[in-house]
UniProtKB/TrEMBL annotation:
This is Phosphate carrier protein 2. GO terms for molecular function: phosphate transmembrane transporter activity. Its main location: mitochondrion. The chain crosses the membrane at residues 20-39, 279-297. Belongs to the mitochondrial carrier (TC 2.A.29) family.
Length: 312
């Protein structure tokens, strides 16, 4: 990269103000809702392989078969709950992350926050995801049912929500909450902490110049590269829990059976090797997804006159 005019953020929004946190939440909606929706075909094939590893020989085999049998509409089955759920998740994930990062920094003080930056990133992102998953879980439950049911689960988004509630009550939307936490909280912790550190490493160890020495477009290129590397780590860390979530939302628990018992049964049935089923397509999906999310998010911040994330 060549040196260009320093990047200077000009905005009427004060960093770490309520308006700033709201702006980050808006960026999160754009980053997560649109990108997850665009990856719906790959996500669907991944979920079907997790539920039945014999369904397809691989991601491209699955895409080819679904497209031939069901067309474009079939490839985007579950797209609506995906868009709604991950828009809500993105709003909370990015907005709450910035809020809790700022809040925890104030609690421990500037010196400790600077010295233990990674711990700060991990704690802020974990807290943000904990609360955010209450909004995501119902949409995730519907998405998985629509994508993996042997026969069409519902003809519409509203009809699917009504069907879950009629069959299982409110528990039907939240029976996968704990496994979702086990998937999403480690994923988000790795996503934010690794991204922040990778960005800092690129500027200090690879490029050798401060972030503000580079143009907006150059900074966004760093954002995309760091996002992809962080995404690969995220996929590996969170995959076993993702497999359990897919299986759990695909089955109806026995009468009186608790979620913990259902999860234990799934793990016994899958074994160690089984929980890693579908990892290759998920690495591709999450790596691409995470890079796109960070790119969209930081592009939104740049358009708002705010600094890109990380590298300070």
């Amino acid at each position: 990269m060549t040196q260009s005019k320093p990047f200077i953020a000009r905005s009427t929004i004060e960093v770490n103000s309520p308006r700033y946190f709201m702006a980050c939440g808006m960026g999160g909606i754009l980053a997560c809702g649109t990108t997850h929706f665009s990856m719906t075909p790959i996500d669907m094939i991944k979920c079907r392989i997790q539920v039945d590893k014999k369904a397809y020989t691989g991601i491209f085999d699955g895409l080819r078969k679904v497209a031939a049998k069901e067309g474009v509409k079939g490839l985007f089955l579950g797209g609506t709950p995906t868009f709604v759920g991950y828009s809500l998740q993105g709003m909370g994930k990015y907005g709450f992350y910035e809020f809790f990062k700022y809040t925890y920094s104030n609690i421990v003080g500037e010196r400790a926050a600077s010295r233990y930056k990674t711990s700060l990133y991990l704690s802020a992102s974990a807290t943000a995801e904990f609360f955010t998953d209450f909004m995501l879980c119902p949409m995730e439950a519907l998405k998985v049912r629509m994508q993996t049911a042997a026969t069409p689960f519902a003809s519409s988004f509203a009809g699917g929500l009504a069907k879950i509630y009629q069959r299982e009550g409110i528990n039907g939307f939240y029976k996968g909450l704990v496994p979702l936490w086990l998937r999403q909280i480690p994923y988000t912790m790795v996503k934010f902490a690794s991204f922040e550190n990778i960005v800092a490493g690129i500027y200090t160890r690879v490029l050798g110049k401060p972030k503000d020495s580079y143009s907006k477009s150059q900074q966004l290129a760093v954002t995309f590269a760091a996002g992809y590397m962080a995404g690969i780590l995220c996929a590996v860390v969170s995959h076993p829990a993702d497999t359990v979530v897919s299986k759990l939302n695909n089955v109806v628990k026995e009468q009186g059976q608790g979620t913990a018992a259902a999860v234990a049964g799934i793990l016994r049935g899958l074994g160690f090797k089984g929980v890693w089923t579908g990892l290759a397509p998920r690495i591709f999906m999450i790596g691409t997804l995470t890079a796109m999310q960070w790119f969209v998010y930081d592009t939104f911040k740049v358009r708002m006159g705010l600094p890109t994330t990380g590298g300070h």
